[in-house]
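Sharing a chain and its predicted structure for anyone who wants a worked example. Both blocks are below, sequence first, tokens second.
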Amino acid sequence: MVRMFALARSKVFLAVLAAGFLQTQAFDNSRSDNLAVYWGQNSYGAATGAANGQSSLATYCQDDTVDAIPIAFLYDYFSTGGLPALDLSSACSVSSNGAFSGTALPNCQFLADDIQTCQAKGKIVTLSLGGATGNTQFTSASQASQFADTIWNLFLGGSSDTRPFGTAVLDGIDLDIEGGTSDYYDSFVNQLRTHTDAANKSYYLTAAPQCPYPDAHVGTVLDAVAFDAVYVQYNNYCGLQNFDNSNDWNFATWDNWAKNTAVNKDVKIYIGAPASSTAAGSGYVDASTLANIALETRSQYDSFGGIMLWDMSQAYANNRFDQQIKTAISTGAATKRCVDNSTDTTIEARSDRFSKIAARNSSSGFCVLKAIQIVELAYNRMALRPESLAYLLPSKEQVIRDAMFMNLNDEFDDEWMKKT
């Protein structure tokens, strides 16, 4: 026993042991390192023709990477039988799974277990309304209010004989409205809030506007009612590719909206990004570039809530793009860019978290990602040592994220690099 705990002198090993005892944490909307990733449309499969591009929902909840999962899309508000229409591509559709009698609602009740699995792991699962081809307009305030009642009964805390996800109770609604106007959406949201505010669980309301401000389709409702988070889609002229152009990059505009116009002054603004080059027509940047943009933005704007990605299938196909981003933004603070002199790269990632780490013959890159590589090196080495109790090690991904929050200097510093 004495020998076993003597090994824990290494701060890296302490991080590993500590990570093993962490419990699942509930979703925290106030954080600035949340990751939201859409699921349901099999974007990778649709873009590439790849078979089985989209896996089951539960597959994407096996680690701590993703915090919020909007299911996409409920695309028609008033379809057959006066009820909405829902299509989840390869995951669930009327053509593949059948519909409730007299409706265009597919029977996706088999997804209840997956949804509840993800929720049990501290993630929120919401329903996204709209999409690029959605039929999502109201003709009156009363129609909008009645639709809010319908959504409550079909997907949230209400009751109905035609609940597409069965006993699963989703955690909120996302508005990805990309056509028409937002007329009467304030009535829809206000009526929905009458249900959610009286409930014994937390519900979240989000929106996914395009980055040009104000958004042409949800701009009015964004100003009129309280939102918890806004997933700004940065794939237009104001997109990620123009981050260094102050005339185009407009996070400051959205931050100003959050602080001075939004009903909820604590609303969080996410940077929405394609998860691969095939996920959108423009706006894709690699993981290190997006991570650097996110951390620099977070250091300037306290409304920053995290990153939104489109979509899960694209992220997994692109070398776990989601995981790369989550790990980087979980460092807790912005990092400085690496300084490259072709022979020596000094990485500075928060002096109170990491001491300076020298990496020989490294090309210029993103500091946090280099620090991650070093944490992985430490993890792998300990896992190979019989006396390190490798069977107690949690997942490498969890170790990396937890280690980022610990004061890893001393042993975890130049000494590690000298042993490479």
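Comments welcome. The longest strand covers residues 68-76.
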